[in-house]
């Protein structure tokens, strides 16, 4: 009996993200009389969440390696301002603007990596300091004004949708992509499971695996459906999905991914195992900064103009998303997919609370408490399990 | 009935699976310097932790009386109240604070809710005079040498009106002159009626200052005698004789002739005390397929030696010549360099320096050799699983699967996981630091067998060990380290090496 109960707790804990999603969606749908789950709103919601979700992808690596980044949101705003200024005021083309953004992000990555990885300054303080410096740069470059509009070709990244190949109201291109995604997912999962059984790593339990696959496929269809019946997949979502897939692969299949987890799990053991921990930390910040650059382009494209406060507290949403999605704030544990879903969950919270016309004050309080709760669950569960 | 200030009777303290103290009786007379000697792991530290309240009442059995009154501590604070103060080998001073702040830390003189600095400074000057330290109270501690810091620790203890002062290896990081000053101070404190418990591996110091000596071995009191009845040889013969409870496999390997690794005049300065070298002109050599033991007492610098060879000591300058595989080469600047060249090191502290406890066995095993199973940075996961499963099979690691998390394994199996990790790097020379620490007898035997097999396969092994029987039975040759130097070299094949010989050498006789 007790074993059964422990088993149920375990299942609940493992699927806590899914449960939280269901609760939040049910709650908001009820409170907003269904406005919340209209395809229009859900599509909107995901577009709002996409920027932070992209940041959350590499924020996961940062947190897993026992580092942190408090400057991501401001960095996004800063790169956006620079991009807007050079395009609107200096007349740079889209390609040149993108190159400048990439260069800026690399400089920022080097800057963080130098102080945090090689000079061993605490990441928390370094990135906090950078945040302030970047705020200053935003004001200096943009003169504290909104700058826009961006050219059409630039805005495409943030606000356009995949072209529809068919003529019907259903978005054919997106439907095809979603189907392809499902097939790829099924093939990869089944092959992986087969191999594991073949190697004797796990015992065959196809029922469980099939349930899992069905749930994921259903989720893909629900999410895709939102877009397919609205305007199709936006480029931003395509970029998010592609980056998430790439980094999921990096984490699970590459030496770099393995080293990130080793550095976060036990830095001393990692060093004695021959891992150049400084180099890994540097690479993490370089990658992270580059991804923040991508996020800034998407965000700027969607909003169309750079404002001095753009990006404020995005890092907060991304960090909360990571932790809600199962990344341990103590390092050494986390998943990319979890972080993206977690961040989308935070975006849903944002969106739902706005639909309910809740004031800014209560929104801040709720979001702060959610982060608190997520970290408490992480740390307490970890100390319990030793 | 003599005038005992401290009586500890029938003290027994058990850790899971081990009896650290077994019915120990330890009595100290008022106003004497009483030395406590014994090998590593004899139970000295555990006994002192009982005395100083680190292990509160209930965690041990037995009776403890101070000045005839039975004591039942709940915390270290209680022991301080009873007049016991302990000074550990690792100093407990806050380097960035002044002498005065340190002396009164946790004991501030408070008047009307604020610290009375005048009174503290006055008293501090008094205390510094008592310990013969000519420094101002407002000097910042970290600007002083280790010897002076040691004196500040004593001043801090004296300030608490201590009756029994315990010093744990106080001279291990001091220069000779500083040691002499300290011993003189202790004699002077004895004149003024202070009782001292002195723990040291340096038997010449013990002989010089003690009135009485108690010898512990394997958690038992062997003898308590006045110093007049003992000399260094007698102390040693009481200290050794750890029973040969472990069984050792027959040696099947024969070391080759060719010298694989040689280091000459390896010297590393101490971080805080540049006048004293942590490691001083160490020269050793290892032949192919040979097991070389490094024996020595705690604090002799064995781990530091291994770590510095392995390139894990990079923030401090090391000097000396290294010859590896017949060629002279630069010292290793990072463990990566060492591993790539064929040198691997496994730490004595498996949990802190060895394992990723929250990762699975597979990840742990391949961590140092991922470059061998990856192409363009992408790991061949199938090959990885195969290697890990082969390792589990070859070393008969008891685990349901290679997906098991490292923290869920027993000490012996964890050590085997690390050995697989080392073997996957294809080492020519493997340094094992206390390879059987905290491992049950059965697993120990398996580890010994493995070492023999590795040597037979041509891997050279340096084994650092505190267990004398283990060193004698497993090694082809033994170096003894003492105080950062090589104090002796013994060939276990050519002559009969006994525990006494090694210990005599370790204690600097």
UniProtKB/TrEMBL annotation, chain A:
GO cellular component: plasma membrane
Keyword vocabulary terms for this entry: Cell inner membrane, Cell membrane, Membrane, Sugar transport, Transmembrane, Transmembrane helix, Transport
Membrane-spanning intervals of the chain: 12-33, 45-63, 70-86, 92-111, 123-148, 168-190, 210-230, 236-261, 282-301
InterPro entries, per the entry: ABC_transp_permease
Subcellular location: Cell membrane
Source organism superkingdom: Bacteria
Membrane topology: Multi-pass membrane protein
GO molecular function: transmembrane transporter activity
Function: Part of the binding-protein-dependent transport system for D-xylose. Probably responsible for the translocation of the substrate across the membrane.
Protein name: Xylose transport system permease protein XylH
Origin species: Faecalicatena orotica
The organism's taxonomic lineage, starting at the top: Bacteria, Bacillati, Bacillota, Clostridia, Lachnospirales
Automatic annotation (TrEMBL), chain B:
Gene3D superfamilies found in the cross-reference section: P-loop containing nucleotide triphosphate hydrolases
InterPro entries: AAA+_ATPase (IPR003593), ABC_carbohydrate_import_ATPase (IPR050107), ABC_transporter-like_ATP-bd (IPR003439), ABC_transporter-like_CS (IPR017871), P-loop_NTPase (IPR027417)
GO cellular component, one term: plasma membrane
Molecular function via GO: ATP binding; ATP hydrolysis activity
Keyword field contains Transferase: no
Membrane topology: Peripheral membrane protein
Domain ABC transporter, chain residue ranges per copy: 6-243, 263-508
Cellular compartment(s): Cell membrane
Pfam assignment, any one: ABC_tran
Record key words, sorted: ATP-binding, Cell membrane, Membrane, Nucleotide-binding, Repeat, Sugar transport, Translocase, Transport
Organism domain of life: Bacteria
Keyword Membrane in annotation: yes
The protein's name in its UniProt record: Xylose ABC transporter ATP-binding protein
Provenance organism: Faecalicatena orotica
Lineage: Bacteria, Bacillati, Bacillota, Clostridia, Lachnospirales
């Amino acid at each position: 009996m007790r074993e059964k109960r422990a088993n149920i707790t375990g299942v609940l804990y493992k699927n806590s993200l899914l449960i939280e999603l269901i609760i939040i969606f049910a709650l908001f749908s009820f409170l907003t009389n269904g406005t919340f789950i209209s395809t229009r709103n859900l599509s909107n919601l995901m577009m709002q969440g996409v920027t932070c979700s992209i940041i959350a992808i590499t924020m996961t690596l940062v947190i897993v390696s026992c580092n942190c980044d408090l400057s991501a949101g401001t960095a996004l705003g800063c790169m956006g301002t620079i991009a807007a200024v050079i395009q609107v005021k200096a007349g740079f083309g889209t390609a040149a603007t993108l190159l400048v953004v990439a260069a800026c992000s690399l400089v920022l990555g080097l800057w963080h990596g130098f102080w945090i990885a090689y000079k061993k300054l605490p990441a928390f303080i370094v990135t906090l300091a950078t945040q302030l410096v970047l705020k200053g740069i935003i004001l200096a470059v943009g003169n504290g004004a909104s700058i826009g509009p961006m050219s059409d070709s630039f805005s495409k990244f943030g606000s356009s949708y995949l072209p529809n190949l068919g003529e019907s109201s259903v978005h054919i291109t997106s439907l095809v992509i979603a189907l392809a995604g499902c097939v790829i997912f099924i093939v990869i999962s089944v092959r992986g499971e087969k191999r594991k059984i073949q190697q004797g790593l796990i015992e065959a339990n196809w029922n469980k695996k099939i349930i899992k696959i069905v749930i994921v496929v259903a989720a893909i269809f629900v999410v895709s459906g939102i877009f397919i019946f609205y305007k199709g997949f936006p480029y931003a979502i395509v970029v998010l999905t592609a980056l998430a897939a790439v980094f999921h692969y990096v984490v699970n299949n590459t030496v770099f991914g393995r080293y990130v987890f080793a550095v976060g799990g036990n830095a001393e053991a990692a060093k004695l195992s021959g891992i150049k921990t400084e180099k890994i930390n540097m690479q993490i910040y370089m990658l992270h900064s580059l991804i923040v650059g991508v996020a800034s382009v998407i965000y700027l494209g969607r909003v169309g103009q750079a404002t001095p406060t753009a990006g404020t507290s995005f890092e907060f949403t991304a960090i909360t998303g990571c932790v809600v999605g199962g990344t341990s704030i103590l390092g050494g544990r986390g998943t990319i997919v979890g972080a993206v879903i977690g961040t989308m969950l935070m975006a849903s919270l944002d969106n739902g609370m706005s639909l309910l016309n809740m004031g800014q004050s209560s929104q801040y309080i709720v979001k702060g408490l959610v982060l608190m709760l997520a970290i408490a669950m992480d740390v307490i569960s970890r100390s319990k399990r030793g | 009935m003599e005038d005992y200030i401290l009586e500890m009777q029938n003290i027994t303290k058990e850790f899971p699976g081990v009896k650290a103290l077994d019915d120990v009786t330890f009595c100290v007379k008022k106003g004497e310097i009483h030395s406590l000697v014994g090998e590593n792991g004899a139970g000295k530290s555990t006994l002192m932790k009982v005395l100083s309240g680190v292990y509160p009442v209930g965690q041990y059995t037995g009776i403890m009386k101070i000045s005839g009154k039975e004591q039942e501590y709940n915390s270290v604070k209680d022991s301080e109240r009873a007049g016991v103060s302990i000074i550990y080998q690792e100093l407990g001073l806050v380097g960035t604070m002044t002498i005065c702040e340190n002396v009164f830390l946790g004991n501030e003189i408070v008047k009307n809710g604020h610290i009375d600095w005048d009174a503290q400074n006055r008293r501090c000057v008094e205390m510094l005079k008592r310990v013969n330290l000519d420094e101002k109270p407002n000097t910042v501690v970290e600007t002083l040498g280790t010897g002076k810091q040691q004196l500040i620790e004593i001043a801090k203890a004296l300030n608490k009106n201590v009756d029994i002062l315990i010093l744990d290896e106080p001279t291990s990081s001091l220069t000779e002159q500083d040691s002499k000053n300290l011993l003189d101070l202790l004699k002077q404190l004895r004149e003024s009626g202070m009782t001292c418990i002195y723990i040291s591996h340096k038997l010449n110091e013990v002989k010089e200052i003690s009135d009485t000596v108690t010898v512990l071995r394997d958690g038992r009191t062997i003898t308590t005698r006045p110093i007049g009845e003992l000399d260094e040889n007698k102390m040693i013969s009481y200290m050794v004789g750890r029973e040969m409870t472990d069984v050792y496999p027959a040696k099947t390997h024969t070391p080759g002739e060719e010298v694989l690794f040689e280091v000459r005049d390896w010297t590393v300065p101490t971080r805080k005390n540049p006048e004293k070298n942590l490691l001083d002109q160490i020269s050793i050599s290892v032949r192919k397929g040979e097991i070389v033991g490094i024996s020595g007492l705690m604090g002799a610098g064995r781990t530091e030696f291994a770590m510095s060879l392995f390139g894990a000591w990079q923030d401090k300058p090391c000097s000396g010549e290294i010859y590896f595989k017949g060629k002279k080469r630069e010292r290793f600047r990072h463990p990566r360099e060492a591993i790539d060249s064929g040198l691997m090191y496994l730490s004595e502290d498996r949990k802190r320096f060895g394992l990723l406890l929250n990762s699975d066995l597979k990840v742990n095993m391949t961590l140092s050799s991922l470059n061998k199973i990856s192409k363009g940075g992408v790991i061949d996961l199938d090959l990885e699983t195969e290697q890990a499963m082969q390792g589990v099979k070859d070393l008969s690691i008891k685990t349901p699967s290679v997906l098991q998390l490292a923290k869920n394994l027993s000490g012996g199996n964890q050590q085997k996981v690390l050995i697989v990790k080392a073997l996957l790097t294809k080492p020519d020379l493997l340094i094992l630091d206390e390879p059987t620490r905290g491992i049950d007898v059965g697993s120990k035997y398996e580890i010994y067998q493995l070492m023999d097999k590795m040597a037979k396969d041509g891997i050279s092994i340096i084994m650092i060990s505190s267990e004398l029987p283990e060193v004698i039975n497993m090694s082809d040759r033994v170096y003894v380290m003492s105080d950062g130097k090589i104090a002796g070299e013994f060939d276990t094949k050519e002559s009969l090496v006994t525990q006494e010989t090694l210990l005599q050498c370790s204690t600097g006789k």
